[in-house]
Amino acid sequence: MVTHPGFVPDAPARPSPQGAPRARVPVWRRVLGAIAGLALACGAVYVQSLVLTPDQLNDPITTSGGMHDELVTDRFSTRVERLEFARTVRVKQTYTTDEATTDNIFLIVKVGATTPRRPTRLDAHLLTADGLRFEPTDRVAATASMADKWVQPGWWRSGFFFFEVPKPAVAGLRLVVAEPETLFGDTWVAETSADLGLDETEAERMVGAAKDVYEVTG
Amino acid sequence: MTSAAPTDAPRRRPILVPVLAVLAAATVGVSAAFGGLEDAPEPKADQLGKGATLDQGKMKTVFEDAVVRPGKNGLGVPDKRYLQLILKVTNQTDRTILAQGMNSALVAVRADGKTIKPSSDPADFGPRIVVLAGGKTYGQLHPNVPETVVMAFELRSGAPAPKTVSIDAGTFEWYKWFSNQTHDWVPVEELGPPTPEDLKRGKKSSSMPVVAARITMPVRVEDA
């Protein structure tokens, strides 16, 4: 039988006999390879430092921004609208007036919020520059707080969060807003974290210009 | 011709056995001199007085005063009298906690030697613990902010006011949970003799808080 040339594949080339001189690798390639290997090893060691500690594993997923920024998460969006400092907060209700005083200072944060799908409530806390967490004060009646109000899809609604902070802790404060914690603690909940723009001078100016009385209804 | 036989080498003295014997004797002797293998006695709780400061880990507490006075706004009703422990508490954690947490920080309270906390009456929910500021009562202790905390025990009507009060204060440790490796402030506890309930459940011991300090204060009586 006649086979056309090229129809039957050529036999694979025999491996070069043992001991044959290997192709020489130029020195610059060896050096480059060593540097690349070192870089990869260093990178692997460095990445280990980014591993979350067990204490951080349940941390929320944070959307960060500044004053007046619309911070969007899958569950809700927030926007810090205004800051006020005051020495006294007066809550006017239908029949009573409740006055809250402090040796520290009250920070009143006006926050706007909306949600994409279902109604929700929002809680907030402050984080100081050195990581201390301040919950909203219980000296101001809870009825005046945004935490008491429902946030609905379709429109923005605004409300106040009232905090009591020592004056030295004011510089560098952040406001963190999240849905109320569930009893057993969900993982990967969403939160928004807004830098309140209080650097040293601004903090001193705003605390110095604090109102004697801040009056709200609620 | 041939190398020297090993038996020609100078005979070695068996030194290991006597050295071990001396070491063993020394170990026994030193252990015996320091009280044998018994547990060392527990360090006695500090004895503190009025005005003392105690670092309890989770909070720093100054034991300022003990007063018997009638109740008023937020702290009981006017026609009853209360034994009030006045504390200055600074929250040393990194977040806002509740003053009610002092319930586990002060393990036991005795008035004139009689235990009033923990109460023997299961229907007694324990003392009322509040933050007192500007004549009103609140519940929060913000981080690093010293606040006046009042722990108030109701006195039975007609009962004489106690002369002294003694407080067993415990401490908290930054504890790492075995299950998920997270940390939390947890009261320091040790195993002690079983309580009657634990005996009923078949346990041989109960874990009870370690008393770090015992504070004894005279009680003032204030009217109106």
Question: How would you sum up this structure, described in words?
Answer:
- The complex is a heterodimer of chains A (218) and B (224).
- By secondary structure, chain A is an alpha+beta fold.
- Chain A folds into two domains: 25-54; 58-217, Immunoglobulin-like.
- Helices cover 14% and strands 34% of the residues of chain A.
- Chain A is built from two helices and ten strands; from the N terminus they run αβββββββββαβ.
- A five-stranded mixed sheet of chain A has the order 1-9-8-5-6, with no helix packed on it.
- In chain A, strand 5 (123-127) and strand 6 form a beta hairpin.
- The longest helix of chain A is centred in the N-terminal third of the chain and has 22 residues, at 27-48.
- Chain B is mainly beta.
- Chain B has a domain at 46-170 and 211-221: Immunoglobulin-like.
- Chain B has three helices and 18 strands.
- In chain B, a hairpin with a 3-residue loop joins strand 2 and strand 3 (59-70).
Essential attributes:
heterodimer; A: 218 residues; alpha+beta; Immunoglobulin-like; five-stranded mixed sheet; 14% helix; elongated; B: 224 residues; mainly beta; seven-stranded mixed sheet; 18 strands
CATH topology of the largest domain in chain A: Immunoglobulin-like
For the largest beta-sheet of chain A, the strand count, sense and barrel status come to: 5 strands, mixed
Structural class of chain A: alpha+beta
Strand element count of chain A: 10
Distance between the termini of chain B: 116 Å
Helix count of chain A equals: 2
Number of DSSP E strands of chain B? 18
Overall number of domains of chain A: 2
Whole-number mean pLDDT of chain A: 90
Mean pLDDT of chain B: 88
Indicate the CATH architecture of the largest domain in chain A: Sandwich
- The CATH class name of the domain at 46-170 and 211-221 in chain B reads Mainly Beta
User: What is the CATH C level class of the largest domain in chain A, in words?
Assistant: Mainly Beta
Please identify, by name, the CATH architecture of the domain at 46-170 and 211-221 in chain B: Sandwich
Low-pLDDT segments, ≥5 res of chain A: none
* Global outline of chain A: elongated
The helix-strand sequence of chain B is HEEEEEHEEEEEEEEEEHEEE
- Please state the CA-atom Rg of chain B, rounded to the nearest Å: 28 Å
Q: Report the β-strand fraction of chain A as a percent range.
A: 25-35%
